[in-house]
């Protein structure tokens, strides 16, 4: 029996491959079910964020297990195995624990000490438990990784600075605008993890208006409904096809969507942050 992880990480990976491998919360039950049906895998957890998609697994036979996970990732990405395999990272046994602890601590994130990844690790484990795919080996591994991530943040100075991409984006906007974000009209394009993080941080900056543009209105409304009441009353949701108009009226624009091109702003739009 071996513990392995096979996945694609942000460093050195084509962004188009990383995007095709990213799984949403609603995709996970079906994906975990596919792994549960593979005879060589006895346990599995999928960690999928905007920066990585990794499958942790307990396998009976190492080489067959790696082949199984490569085939699985090829299927969900729609990329042939021979195209995907050169970009995949494979780790096993002690190296799996070391890697997961590093990820949970925020040491392998684009922003050192990122806080969001710890919650993503915990939710990945919880979802695998809900689907009855995570057993005693991976549950013990992920429980200790979460505990380690918490200790790193409470016992070191790693969490004292900017701890997420959302945090960094808001801090940059505050720095670039002479009056900060107070009384600003802010547009957030995308209601996913990053867009939601930005929106929640805006509650501390007394913005005049928050507009959330998203492909699906329901996700945009869910984001707004989770904001503090004072910001909810100054927020509205619009479809993506209204982005150009909203950009022209905004003081600050944050974008966090998967797209092949940037949305074209209205011609009268100037000096956007």
How does this model look, in words?
It is a single chain. With 273 residues, the protein is an alpha/beta fold. Helix content is 45%, strand content 18%. It has 12 helices and 8 strands. The chain has helices spanning 15-21, 28-36, 62-77, 81-84, 94-104, 116-130, 136-155, 165-176, 193-202, 217-225, 229-232, 243-249, and strands spanning 2-9, 41-48, 52-59, 89-92, 185-189, 209-214, 235-239, 252-255. The strands form 2 sheets. It has a 4-stranded antiparallel sheet, with helices on both faces. A 4-stranded parallel sheet has the order 7-6-5-8, sandwiched between helices. The radius of gyration is 20 Å and the shape is elongated.
């Amino acid at each position: 029996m071996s513990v392995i992880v096979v996945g694609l990480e942000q460093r050195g990976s084509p962004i188009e491959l990383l995007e095709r491998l990213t799984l949403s919360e609603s995709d996970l039950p079906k994906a975990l079910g596919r792994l549960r049906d593979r005879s060589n895998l006895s346990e599995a957890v999928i960690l999928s964020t905007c920066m990585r998609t990794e499958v942790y697994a307990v396998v009976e036979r190492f080489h067959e297990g790696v082949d199984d996970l490569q085939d699985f990732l090829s299927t969900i990405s729609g990329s042939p195995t021979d195209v995907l395999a050169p970009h995949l990272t494979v780790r096993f046994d002690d190296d799996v624990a070391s890697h997961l602890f590093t990820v949970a601590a925020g040491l392998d994130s684009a922003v050192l000490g990122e806080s969001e990844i710890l919650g993503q690790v915990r939710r990945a484990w919880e979802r695998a438990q809900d689907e009855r795919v995570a057993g005693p080996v991976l549950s013990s591994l992920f429980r200790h990784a979460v505990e380690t991530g918490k200790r790193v943040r409470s016992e070191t100075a790693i969490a004292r600075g900017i701890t997420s991409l959302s945090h960094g984006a808001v801090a940059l906007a505050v720095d670039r605008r002479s009056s900060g974000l107070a009384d600003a009209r802010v547009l957030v394009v995308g209601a996913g993890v990053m867009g939601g993080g930005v929106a929640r941080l805006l509650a501390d900056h007394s913005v005049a208006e928050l507009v959330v543009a998203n492909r699906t209105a329901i996700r945009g409304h869910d984001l707004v409904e989770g904001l503090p009441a004072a910001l909810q009353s100054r927020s509205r949701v619009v479809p993506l096809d209204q982005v150009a108009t909203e950009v022209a009226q905004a003081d600050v624009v944050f974008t966090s969507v998967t797209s092949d091109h940037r949305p074209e702003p209205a011609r009268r739009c100037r000096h956007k942050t």
